Amino acid sequence: MGFSCGIVGLPNVGKSTLFNALTKAGAESSNYPFCTIEPNIGVVPVPDERLDKIVSFVKPKNVVSTYMNFTDIAGLVAGASEGQGLGNKFLAHIREVEAIAQVVRLFKNEDIVHIGEVDPIRDIEIILTELRLKDLESLESRMKRLEKEAKVGKKEAKAELTFTQQLVDILSHEKTLNTNELAEPERDWLKEYRLLTFKPTIIVANVAEEGLVNINDDPMYQKVLAYAKERDYEVLPLSVKIEEELGVLSESEAEEYLDSLGIQESGLKQLIRKGYDLLGLMTYFTAGEKECRGWTVQNNTTAPQGAGKIHSDFEKGFIRAEVISYTDFIEAKGSYPKVREHGKLRVEGKDYILQDGDVINFRFNV
Fold first, then answer.
1. CA 204, CA 137: separation in Å to the nearest integer?
2. Edge-to-edge, what's the strand order for the sheet holding 99-105?
3. Which of 57, 157, 269, 351 has the fewest CB within 10 Å, making it most exposed?
4. What is the pLDDT of residue 30?
5. Mind listing the pLDDT tens digit for each residue in 309-332?
6. Residue 121: pLDDT above 50?
7. Statement: residue 33 has pLDDT above 70
C-alpha cells in the first residue's frame, strides 16, 4: 500500500475538502459533523520535476511516479478516547497511518458550522489530548502485563516496565520525548507500541482565500506558529477553498489562477512533499525505454533493500547496483553510452546506501 499520512481534525475544518482536492476521489463533504464515517484512502503522486526531466530524454513507453497514501479520517471530538462521537473507530484509523496532517481552521464563516468559536490552538489541543489519553490507556494496559512478567523474574520485562513508566510520566505531564537519547531496545519497544502521540505531525492551517498572501500578518496564524515551534511541529498555511478551485482547472489555468493570487505553488504540492519528508522518505529512479519510474524508500536504505522494492527476487539475488547520479544522468541527456564514456557510472555493492535522485540498474541472480 505504500506510506500513509492521515488527515485529522475537528469536524468542519476542511479535512474532507482538502482530501477531495488532494486525490480528486470525491469523498463526501457536507456541512455537518461525522459526514465522513469510514476512512477514505487516496493514492497521490508525489510531485517531482526530476522524473519529468528524465522522461523528456528517455521517452519511455510507460511512466510511474512515486506516491503517498492520504487517509481522510472522520472528525474527532472531545471525549473521543472514551468513545464519544465515533471516537474509538477514528482513533483506530489514526493508528494505521504513519504520519498525521492535522487541519485547523483560522477563519470565521457563518455558513460553515464549527464546534464552538474558531480557535485553532484549542482545536489542536483537543486532538492531542485525545491521542494522549488513548496512548496512556494503551500503555497502562501493557504495564499490567509487564508487572506480572517482572514478578516472575523476567529481566527484559523489568527494563521495559521502567521505560513504559517513563512514557506514562511524559504523557501525563504533556512533555516530549527525545528519541535521539533512546537505547536500541527502547527504540524497538517504542516502535512496537505504535503510539499516536509520537507519529510525525504537520499542522495544516486552513486560511481564508484573501488571507493567504499576507498570512504572516495574521495574528491567529502567528499564535499557531508559536505553539507549533514549542512542539517541533511544522506548519503549512493553505486555503482549502483555493485548492478546491484549482482541482477543476487545467494545468495552464491553474498556473494563471495562482499567478493572479500572487502564489508561487499550490498548497497541495507542498503538503505532499512535506508529508514525504515527514516520513523520512527519498526517491531513486529506474530509467529505460520500456519504463521510467520513481521508487520510494526510507532514508539510509541499502542497495539490496532498494532492489527489493522492485521485486523480492532482486534483493535475494542481489549482485551489484549500477548507479548514476541524477545530475550526471541529465548532463548526459539520458544517454547511457555518454555516462559510461565520461566515467560517471559507478558499480556499488551490498553496503551502498542509496542517495536521493540516484538512477539505478540492479544486477541480480536467482
1. 28
2. 40-45, 67-72, 4-8, 99-105, 201-206, 234-238
3. 351
4. 41
5. 999 999 999 999 999 999 999 999
6. yes
7. no
Q: Where are the beta strands (DSSP E) in 168-261?
A: 201-206, 234-238
Percentage of residues in the chain having pLDDT higher than 70: 87
Q: Left (φ > 0), alpha (ψ -120 to 50) or beta: where does 85 sit? A: left
Element (H, E) at 315: helix 312-316
Q: Report the alpha-carbon distance of residue 275 to residue 69 in Å, rounded.
A: 10
**Placement of cell 558499480 in the chain:** 347
CA distance 201 to 204: 10
**Could you tell me which residues are beta bridge partners of residue 323?**
346, 360
At residue 116, the pLDDT reads 59
**pLDDT for 132:** 87
Burial (0-12, 13-18, 19+ Cβ within 10 Å), 182: middle
Neighbours of 349 (CB within 10 A): 12
Q: Are strands 67-72 and 99-105 parallel, antiparallel or unpaired?
A: unpaired
Q: In what order do the strands lie in the sheet with 359-364?
A: 62-64, 291-298, 281-287, 359-364, 318-324, 346-348
Residue closest to 329 by CA, chosen among 340, 343, 339: 339
**What is the total residue count of the chain?**
366
